[in-house]
Amino acid sequence: MTTTDPDVEVGRELLQFPPDFLWGAATASFQIEGATTVDGRGTSIWDTFAATPGKVLGGDTGDPACDHYHRYENDVELMSSLGLAAYRFSVAWPRIQPLGSGAVETRGLDFYDRLVDSLLASGIQPLVTLYHWDLPQALEDAGGWRNRDTAYRFAEYATIVHGRLGDRVKAWTTLNEPWCSAFLGYGNGIHAPGIADPRAALEAAHHLLLGHGLATAALRSLAPADHRLSIVLNFSTVWADGASEEHLTAVRKVDGLQNRILLDPITGRGYPEDVLLETAWLGDWTRVIRDGDLEIIEAPLDWLGVNYYAPARVAPADGDVVTPGPFAGLRGVELLPPRGELTGFGWEQNADAFTELLVRLSRDSAGLPLVVTENGSAFPDTVDGLGRVVDVERTRYLVDHVRAVHRAIAQGADVRGYLAWSLLDNFEWAAGYSQRFGIVHVDYETQRRTVKESAATLSRIIRDNGLPPTGYDI
Ligand code: IFM
């Protein structure tokens, strides 16, 4: 810090991040690309789901979304103007293999090739996620993630994408939030493919993990030593209002089904015994776990992606009563409503839960460095008469959560980066376009992009590699 730094002049020392801390923003293919029938792209489960009446709010679909498929150069310029050092995006499997296996669509690969070149030319590091929920419909028709074969198809697809982009992309993620794919896609059916069968959710979870392990091994055997492989999981800190045995049991059950069920096998601990016991009443879903699977799933990784939005609050309930909600097999727990300040989406804003989570994960993740791959909030923004989006609430959420990351690092957590969710307002799954998570506003009629105050704030945090300890006027 130089003596001409304005923050020093007003006597505010910055909370400084480590010198090589990675700052950026994230998106996902189906949420921003649009162009769902262009250049040979096949149908994904989200095309089918969105076309099914009543599944997505307002009947919204993946078109035109942000039309990023055609406007990517403009969007990369925008990232560059914000000073982003990294951009996390996902590849749409149906663009690469329209039927999920076999024939490869070169025009799909060409698109991501151009995107990567454009990012690199702007000095922005690409982080590629291979699967962010847009499974080719043809694979779902054969059982989707309930079918073990999908895991093998995923590893093949991963190899194809790596074969094309691996000469330039060094940071690779197999799956984004397999918890959502399994528990929301097959457990309560609020996401594609819309199946409500708790046992299927657990079976799908296993096949997703198997796909992750197979793809990791495939990429590891192909990739140069400096390629960094990962998975991205969505975590929650689970809190109860007491420390009685009943309260601790409720916390343990939800923590098991939200956090440990995926984290433990990936980090070499296998499925948690308590989760296996708690879910046994659903029937023998563990029959899908074959000899050797756990060894495949624990393929060594280089970093763990952490998506965090809000804590979960729970209370003990009658032991035999099934808990309504997404947690397949959960009984004897009440899921409590969020508290305090909420986002526009109704999610609890709680940055302390984020610090607690990062410190805990750093301890429980077998020494893997952590990267915050998503964190953000949705509010109903509008462009004002002066052409600005003054998103005070999102800016506060951002600043509070970046400070929470700083506190976690100060407490010993090995956090290497922070990527805001999301670069652009986009298709928020079952909520359609009703929820704006972007730091850049998108007018879906005109496709005009407007940089929000929160983006300007993130930009200054990136410039300073830090932020003041208090206040929001950054
Ligand atoms: O929009 C999603 C994203 O696709 C996955 N993580 C959570 C975000 C907000 O719901």
Keywords:
16 helices, 474 residues, TIM Barrel, alpha/beta, 8-stranded parallel barrel, binds 5-hydroxymethyl-3,4-dihydroxypiperidine, disordered N terminus, 39% helix, globular, 15 strands, single chain, 3-stranded mixed β-sheet
3D structure, described in words:
39% of the residues lie in helices and 14% in strands. It has 474 residues and is α/β, with parallel strands linked by helices. The chain has one domain (15-467): Alpha-Beta Barrel (TIM Barrel), CATH 3.20.20. The strands form four sheets. An eight-stranded parallel beta barrel has the order 2-3-4-5-6-8-11-12, surrounded by six helices. It has a three-stranded mixed beta sheet with strand order 7-9-10, with helices on one face. Strand 11, helix 15 (392-410) and strand 12 form a beta-alpha-beta unit. Helix 9 (178-187) packs antiparallel against helix 10 (198-222). The chain is globular and about 60 Å long. It starts with 5 loop residues before the first helix and ends in a 7-residue tail after the last strand. Bound molecules: 5-hydroxymethyl-3,4-dihydroxypiperidine. The site of 5-hydroxymethyl-3,4-dihydroxypiperidine has 8 residues, from loops.
